[in-house]
Amino acid sequence: MDYPGNLFVVSAPSGTGKSSLVKALLELDSRLLVSISHTTRPPRGQEQHGREYLFIEETEFRGMIAHGDFFEWAEVHGNLYGTSRHAIEERIKGGEDVVLEIDWQGALQIKKIFPNAVLIFILPPSYEELLQRLHRRGEDTSDVIEIRMSNAKVEVEQAQFFDYVVVNSLFETALFDLKAIVHAQRLKYAAQRRNKSAVFRALNLV
Ligand code: 5GP
After folding, report:
1. Across the chain, what does the average pLDDT equal?
2. Does 54 map to a domain?
3. pTM surpassing 0.90?
4. What is the CATH number of the domain that holds 102?
């Protein structure tokens, strides 16, 4: 499949700062669209249906799996999460750049079916720092933090299968790195041929 838009897939262990980084990236780049996932987990805090997630029941989710409605889906921390095929394919075919903020299992599924996807893994600077961030965030009990820390060890091992790695030591530096990846992707030959078609034609380039 030779889709005209870019698909950026960002994964990281919980507490690494992935959501804040992606949010800042989207604010800086109006050409990037984020895909809203479906999940069976209940809303947390101020979360709204259709804004953070599409919150659905497990039976509906299973029905969508059976219909092949998901581009990818995975079970994460006991809940089901999935990216709707329709939302992604239409947008990328339309030449839009899409960002997915999903777990590593979903990211690796996507790479198999769509090898042009750009996989970006965000690492914490150390396990000590990750632990401190999870405590500072104050969202989880000590038991949940312990689970997140043991999951993090499995998760960071997946970074080797990603195209890019960003270390989130300093937020601004990590954001700069993310922007650089998006920018470089847009300078690839195929992307430039699409975006600078007049120049390519003038130079008789195919
Ligand atoms: P949370 O429940 O904290 O919002 O998300 C838990 C994990 O699920 C995070 O790693 C998040 O990136 C991941 N996630 C969110 N949406 C999707 C999705 O559509 N597919 C997959 N595979 N993971 C997702």
Report:
1. 94
2. yes
3. yes
4. 3.40.50.300
